[in-house]
Amino acid sequence: MGAAAKSALLKKNPTYFLWVGVFFLILTLVVGLLYYATQKIDYVWRWYRIPQYFVFYDDVEIRAEIEGTVKRITRKNGDAEVTVADVGEEESYHVPGGEIRVSEGDFIFSGDVLGSFGKWRVGILLQGLWLTLKVSFIAILFGIVIGLFAGLARISKNPALKWSAISYIELIRGSPLLVQIFIWYFVLGTLVNTLLRQQGIPLIPPLWFGVAALATFTGAYVAEMVRAGIQSISRGQTEASRSLGMTYVQSMVHVILPQALRRIIPPLAGQFISLIKDSSLLGIIAIRELTKATREVVTTSLQPFELWFVCALLYLVLTFSLSMLLQYVERRTLYQ
Amino acid sequence: MIEVRNVYKTFLLPYKVRALVDISASVEPGEVVVVIGPSGSGKSTFLRALNRLETPDSGHIWIDGIDVMNPKTDINKVRAEVGMVFQNFNLFPHKTVLENVTLAQVVVRKRSKKEAKNTAMALLEKVGIKEKAQVYPDQLSGGQQQRVAIARALAMNPKVMLFDEPTSALDPEMIGEVLDVMKTLAREGMTMVVVTHEMGFAREVADRVIFMDDGAVVETGTPEHFFKNPIHDRTKLFLSQIL
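^ Those are the sequences you sent over. The predicted structure of the assembly is below.
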């Protein structure tokens, strides 16, 4: 906000900054209350144990795979090369920047530790976050495509298309996502993978059945939004484009859909945010997304409060970013 | 150029209205025909039936020898040859003025972008808003928007132009600029069918006037005949009310 705009605002609404202050007061109060509540429960907070589930420093041991004597150890820029030799056999092991636990001439057995080095590894929560992001992103893309076609079919005059679309939308919207995921994985998934196995083709991992369940679920909601969006564009737009000789498809692609899609960005954003959170249900078919990852860590670490707070925060990061992105897209597509 | 024989159209929804009752008419090449009549007399339905935006229940319509009513006729080809201008302009709000005029040229006529642009700029100059080529329709006044709509229709090189009350949604001071463009078109020999309430335009430009009431053609004639010596009582009544 520029200085001129600020002073104009103040003139119009002199208590503006008072109310800004009130907002921050409320915010502080809520956060403070939450903090107070957390202090009141009988629980030992160990926040310092949380970062290891994002990234952790792992000790990697290099072991010999043959037995023999250590013939040579060469060091170069801190890295080391250990060569183990036996009759007619020779094997070299690379130990990057690490500590060597053997010396030249030692006799070693297969499986003995030659050296070790430390390495940063991605923790389970970050892996889960990445999987949630990936599943949601793919499901959103397919959901848009499915929703677009289902929405167009929904307003088609052809009864086969129209009634198929209505059945799809009502069936999907009216049944629990959890059940749909079960059906996708245990019924359709089993069928597909049995057929694939018979043909000797590699099986489809559960991830893709999860994506399919989310995409068809989202598609049904997107379809209704697309329908509403198209119907909200005035008839005159269709008439104008058709009177110029455009076909139905040309008129849709060039005139109606660009306007309709722009109009449905806000409800779409809401739907996609829901989708990100709904992806937490995929844990039940052994997809280790963020929620499942959190649950696993909770069972081993016994720090449920910290972990579930962090889990919620990570979802918030994803959904808030998406929300911002779509608001940006909406502003960008403003005419002019 | 246009031949209409015994056309009927009844709307069933929201309630039953006999919009067109046994309409027959013809328009010669280069002729300007103005259709007038009270509200709800079926003028707009008649105009929209010509390019099948409204499908008549029965009857025959030929445009440039092509049977519009035949289901086998590629209606998109017919429509590409028939320009139409609407009461509410119906410009595409997500496209600039230039894009509004080039879109159908590229998509329907398969012209190159460059060729379409040249045609568009020439037409925008003709309707007097070349300098607004890059702005979006909602930044234009009603009169300017309607002139863009005319340019958009002309860009297809139509054989006939249909005008559906082109000045009815305009502020009075903008009506003139749109009518001027239409007069220029008429002078250049464009075949035009115009539904309008602008009696001055009818008197000055029309070769023939068709008066409709209750879905039927009541009287047809030159403006001379129509405004000075109308035969039917309904026509006389209408004229006495508006003049």
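Residues 63-119 of chain A form a domain with the OB fold (Dihydrolipoamide Acetyltransferase, E2P) fold (CATH 2.40.50.100). Chain A touches chain B at residues 234, 236-237, 239-247, 250, 254-255, 258-259, 262, 335-336 (CB under 8 Å).

Shout if you want it in another format.
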